[in-house]
Amino acid sequence: MTTRKIGLALGLTALGATSALAQQDFTSRFAPVSDAKSSDYIVTLNANGVVQPSFPGSDRSSVSFFPSLSYRKVGEPVRFSAPDDGISISIIDNPTFRIGPVFRFQSGRYYTDDKLLYGLRKKNYDVESGVFIEYWPISFIRARAELRHGFRSDSGLVGHVGVDYVQPVGQFAFSVGPRLYFGDKRYADRWYGIRPDEAALNGFVTPYSPGGGVNAVGAMGAVTYKWDDSWSTTGYVSYKHLVGDVAKSPIVTKIGSKDQFTFGARVSYSFAFTPWW
Fold first, then answer.
1. pLDDT of residue 12
2. Three-class SS state of 84
3. pTM
């Protein structure tokens, strides 16, 4: 019994030491940004909160919270990113030009969003993928375009073009600029079209078949405050005014609104990460 107890004690001690070393090795890979080494990555974790239209064309708002992250090599410049940028991966990346794939989550449209939607098609959430192009003609002006397509069978091509004036002032960084939104006929029909059977069941709207093209104009403004090397906060506001065929849809004129506002806030924490590869 004594031998077994000694063996068990030695085993537990060795296991504890191994666990402690493993934990120490794991935690040593994370450090404040100020302690970053040239071989490290800077990882930024974001907590996002958004108040936005419940569905495209809605006059009601819904609140959502979601995480996101980004990373860069130590020594790489911090890239400006507007709050309405999709999730981007650069294939070609230099100080004036970037291009690569882009992804964006699109929330759905459900009967619970507005009782006046009764009888209209439910639209499940979608994930849009495509390509982005970004160009910096001068150091404080950025132009960016995105073209995406959803995975749903009734999804169409959709995208936007925007220009941002970007200006750091001390610990603040300001950005503001216009936006132009567009989509093809399939996209317009998905969100703003009404079939005869839907109109008959709803009883409040009439059948409608919109075409594609420019569907909204607007602007985006944001301000970021950098508390230190690790922490920053961002607030932003976006405005869209629906135009063209989508603005004439009964979903907009009788149920929703041509004016679409989005308000958001983001808290970001950055740290150095030493990769194991």
1. 39
2. coil
3. 0.84
